[in-house]
Design brief:
about 15% strand; Aspartate Aminotransferase, domain 2; about 35% helix; alpha/beta; Aspartate Aminotransferase, domain 1; three-stranded antiparallel sheet; 9 helices; amino-acid biosynthesis; 2 domains; 14 strands; about 400 residues
Length: about 400
């Protein structure tokens, strides 16, 4: 029997969204929030503009790309891009987990544009070389939050492409290198890698994306919250802090705080290094532990943010899917009761297992303290299973 660990993670927050707050965060970080003030007041607009400017600085976004704060989190940002830009060219959608499948549904059933679909099971990246980035518009996730599978690079995207690339990067931004010259639309939300609170999404547009917006009129109706142009021209105010609808100024303040933290620790290289170190701690443990395995099949696609794991114990697997799901849920519930790991269950539509967030706001020491508890929880569940048999 594995003995019960004595050391506990200092912060047990390993949720894949909203994610852990940055180290040292307290509510005092929000003391300067523009509460009770209009987001269109000089102060409100200044804070929103500051959020855009810091996003550009920390993410190293090219100067000629627009950055806007838009409604409905990352989902709203992706759908805004799809509804306003798709139509002039054939569309291809890549999907290997829950969120990519949503973009397939949007294109196929809502916009009815008959996309070419590249869909694979959880854990397996589609054949990116089979996607015609030269001639077609492409919608894809950079990092599959629910599958722990990321795109390894942007080499598969044509540099001289005719279409647009629309990239859902919500669990990749700030943690993985994004080749801006290959991406025309990039979206993310505050509550993912930087540990902000849920509110608006971020929409980043290349000059090519702006040209599409100004030259293309969709054949379907656009709700107000999706409208990025007026009289055939980009609404520039959206990309200067004049948001389409009312944002939470408390959430804006929280996003400003975490961006300032990122700058203090060394910017994007430091954020990448922290996520890499965190993920390495988990993958090294997995490599030496027979009862667990990565959901991702190819190591080149292993995510360094949402690390998704599946059970590999032959005794448990032999009992069937329902038993595997119950066993994984038992581990999650046991660790939650102990207060050492909160919200680490697999995504609801993904294979049963664990999902451990390793983004930059998590401390490596907390993941190292978690690992013995994972082994202990497995041993406890295995013993219970044996007794029940």
């Amino acid at each position: 029997m594995t003995s019960r660990p004595t050391q506990r993670p200092r912060v047990p927050h390993f949720s894949s969204g909203p994610c852990a707050k940055r180290p040292g965060w307290t509510p005092a970080a929000l003391a300067d929030a523009a509460l009770g003030r209009s987001h269109r007041s000089p102060l409100g607009k200044a804070k929103l503009a500051r959020a855009i400017d810091l996003t550009r600085s920390v993410l190293q976004v090219p100067a000629d790309y627009r950055i806007g704060i838009v409604p409905a989190s990352d989902t709203g940002a992706v759908e805004m891009a799809m509804w306003t830009m798709l139509g002039p060219k054939p569309v291809e959608v890549a999907a290997w987990e829950a969120f990519g499948k949503e973009w397939v549904t949007d294109a196929l059933k809502q916009l009815k544009i008959a996309p070419r679909i590249h869909q694979t099971p959880y854990g397996v990246l589609p054949d990116l070389a089979a996607i015609d980035t030269q001639h077609n518009d492409v919608v894809f996730t950079w990092n599959g939050t629910a599958a722990g599978v990321k795109v390894p690079d942007g080499d598969w995207i044509a540099a001289d492409r005719e279409g647009l690339t629309i990239c859902d990067a919500t669990s990749a931004a700030f943690a993985q290198a994004l080749p801006w010259d290959k991406l025309d639309v990039v979206t993310f939300s505050w509550q993912k890698v930087m540990g902000g609170e849920a509110a608006h999404g971020m929409l980043i547009l290349s000059p090519r994306a702006v040209a599409r917006l100004e030259s293309h009129t969709p054949s379907w109706p656009l709700p107000k919250v999706f409208r990025l142009t007026k009289d055939g021209k980009l609404i520039e105010g959206i990309f200067k802090g004049d948001t389409i609808n009312t944002p939470s100024m408390l959430a804006v303040e929280d996003y400003l705080d975490t961006l300032a933290w990122a700058e203090r620790i060394g910017g994007l290289p430091a954020l990448h290094a922290r996520a890499d170190a965190n993920a390495k701690a988990i993958y090294d443990w997995v490599a030496r532990t027979p009862w667990i395995a990565p959901l991702a099949v190819d190591p080149a696609t292993y995510s360094n943010t949402g690390v998704c794991l599946v059970l590999a114990d032959s005794d448990v697997l032999a009992r069937g899917d329902a038993a595997v799901s119950a066993f994984a849920a038992g581990i999650v519930e046991r660790l939650d009761r102990e207060g050492v790991a909160l919200d680490i269950g697999a995504y609801r539509d993904a294979p049963a297992g664990l999902r451990i967030w390793c983004g930059a706001t998590v401390e490596t020491a907390d993941l190292e303290a978690l690992i013995p508890w994972l082994d202990w929880a497995f041993a406890e569940e295995k013993a219970a299973l044996t007794r029940a048999a």
